[in-house]
Amino acid sequence: MYREIKKNEISQHIENLNSNGFSHVENYLDIKLAEEVNSRVEDVFEEYSKTNTTAPPKGYQNIIKNDPIMQNAFIYSEDILTLCSTGDHLEIYSHFLNDPYYGLIPEDKPNFNLAQCNLRKGATALPMHYDIRMQIASEKSWSMQGILALDSRGKNNGGLVVIPGSHKLDKPPTEYEDLEDEVFVDLGPGDLVIFNSSLFHATTDVEEGNEATWGLLLTYRSWWCKPQFNIFNMM
Predict the structure, then answer these.
(1) Least enclosed by CB within 10 Å: which of 19, 28, 137, 202?
(2) Burial label, 17 (beta-carbon count in 10 A; 0-12, 13-18, 19+)
(3) Lowest-confidence range among 27-31, 127-131, 161-165, 192-196?
(4) Are 199 and 147 in contact (CB under 8 A)?
(5) Taking residues 134-147, what's their average pLDDT?
């Protein structure tokens, strides 16, 4: 479903992730295909919401409890299963998450896991935060995330805000307000942003006159991390 990410582009994304903690893959999913998937997601969510309830997010993320959210979306949509399990973006994640000593899978194949795959229509802003429970000062990670935009997502309608380089802090700041140099990552339909789970990030409010849009939220983790969900039983 995705376009090819050429080797030199993959190298540039890896360099961006090392230095800044995030990288923007533009036009990854064809815009017309993104529109088709976006339309189908609306139908899938309508059916999903008739019989399923999503457990409310914990902690500070409880503020998004009223946003349309579909946990483990790959169970309900073959499109989503394909989007999270195929594509050259997996080669970028492999650089950071693959275990070089795993041995049972060829070295050029992913040996990490899909930890989380949610659809969320981001109507509510999230404060600055990071998404792992142990912060280390390193470019290396065992957890990486991504947002695939199915429609335009920017500063005015629930877009992503990041603090470049904050994934390399040796300890969390006392106050998130101490962080400076925030960058807004504007995504067009079909764009993917990849980021380190240690990167400090937030999402913006949906301003008057704008609409919240669907994003596919992906989390991949090294094979040895404790699973968040019992995906095998779900499948």
Answers:
(1) 137
(2) buried
(3) 127-131
(4) no
(5) 84
> Is residue 183 within 8 Å of 14, Cβ to Cβ?
no
Q: Produce one character per residue of 23-51: b if its CB has 16 or more CB atoms within 10 Å, e if not.
A: bbbeebbeeebbeebbeebeebbeebeee
Q: What are φ and ψ of residue 106, in 5° steps?
A: -50, 145
The DSSP code sequence of the chain is -BPP--HHHHHHHHHHHHHHSEEEETT-B-HHHHHHHHHHHHHHHHHHHHH--PPPPPGGGGGGTTS-EETTGGGT-HHHHHHHH-STHHHHHHHHH--TT--SS-TTS---EEEEEEEEE--S---SB-S-SS--S-S--SEEEEEEESS-B-TTBT-EEE-TTGGG-SS--SSGGG----EEE-B-TT-EEEEETTS-EEE--B-TT----EEEEEEEE-TTSPPSS-HHHH-
pTM (2 d.p.): 0.93
Q: What is the pLDDT of residues 197-213, one digit of tens each?
A: 999 999 999 999 999 99
Other Cβ atoms less than 10 A from the Cβ of 178: the count is 8
CA distance 57 to 116: 13
For the chain, what percent of residues have pLDDT higher than 90?
69
Q: Distance between CA atoms of 103 and 20, rounded to whole angstroms?
A: 31
Residues with Cβ within 8 Å of residue 129, at least 6 apart in sequence: 60, 176, 200, 201, 202
pLDDT in tens, 101-122: 999 999 889 999 999 999 999 8
